[in-house]
Amino acid sequence: VPVKLVIVGSVALDDVKTPYGAVQRGLGGSAVFASLAASLFVEPGVVGVVGEDFPPEHLALLKGRGIALDGLEQAPGKTFHWTGYYTGDMDEAHTVRTELNVFAGFKPRLPRDWQQAPFLFLANIDPDLQNQVLDQMQRPRMVVLDTMNYWIETKREQLLRVMKRVDLLVVNEGEARQLSGERNVVRAGRWLLRRGPRGVAIKRGACGSMVLWGRETLLLPAFPVDEVKDPTGAGDTFAGGLIGVLAQGGGLDANRLRRAVTVGTVLAAHTVEAFSVQGLTSLQSRELIRRYRYLASQRVPTWTLRLRLEKRRRS
Ligand code: AMP
Question: FRET partner for 158 with CA separation of 20 to 30 A, picked from 146, 247, 306, 309?
């Protein structure tokens, strides 16, 4: 099967602390969460690099999910290592340390037959790398881009350059504000749209998401989870699920986008319920489908509102 979806991003070992506990050197990285989520719908290919210390069982886990690893190099040195923690309502990740390690000198080289893939997800990683991967693609039908504060602060210009070349930008509310300098999310979203992408999906944590697509504005609720243990990877899972559904086939309109965003939302809810990738790897398809149906049923039926105001005017 030719790879339909290429994902470039970090493949990491994470040290994470939350009010629910801690994990050391847990499997993480934007490309890992995204590819696990997308692998429910297509066979994605991962572009990235790991060090000599990367446990072989992690590679086996990814392979076992049908994720192609021909684009994942193993280089001398240490794997990307992120250390972070969450407090309170765990709305935002606090970074203690970002050790790029093998990613610092990484030059991505796409396997030849991946260059024709119709879908590309530029998951959170150095915007220079995102640009280099995009350069090697022939004519992707759809390119989705994610990033985070670290790159907004250190490589803003490069990030704005890659933004010009993508179809859909996925960011969280804080990042949208930081990039645009606008406090209001709607204004921030419009600012981002003017920078090139056809659409912008803004993730708002427990408040769900807002998607601007052309002239449409879609609002989607989050799935209510009663125990958030570790939010790490929620954003990557959301975007990976979203593009996985789109890559599975069909055209792109507001309804398909709504479906894809709903799937991404439900998958993200699974990710935050456990540490590292456990929420995704232990996921039961029945539960996923139940949650998807529940969220999809939340649309308000249209009705003609009968306002007393009208009556007053008539008489
Ligand atoms: P998320 O919680 O979805 O924003 O992503 C969390 C994942 O991003 C973690 O597993 C980290 O390994 C990874 N990560 C953290 N900082 C960076 C960075 N600067 N570049 C790429 N990936 C990162």
Answer: 247
Amino acid identity of residue 86, one-letter, is Y
Tens digits of residue pLDDT in 42-64? 999 999 999 999 999 999 999 99
Cα separation of 31 and 13, whole Å? 12
Mutate to test the pocket of ligand 1, among 32, 82, 152, 270 (most ligand atoms within 8 A of CB): 82
Predicted TM-score (pTM) of the model is: 0.95
Query: Measured in angstroms, how far is the CA atom of residue 124 from the centroid of ligand 1?
Result: 7
CA of 49 to the centre of ligand 1 (A): 14
Give the DSSP H/E element, type plus range, for residue 16: strand 12-18
Rounded to the nearest angstrom, the distance between the alpha carbon of 15 and the centre of ligand 1 is 11
Q: Give Cβ neighbours of residue 79 (< 8 Å, ≥ 6 apart).
A: 11, 12, 13, 50, 51, 53, 54, 101, 102
Please name the helix (run of DSSP H) or strand (run of DSSP E) that holds residue 312, with its range, or none. Answer: helix 308-314
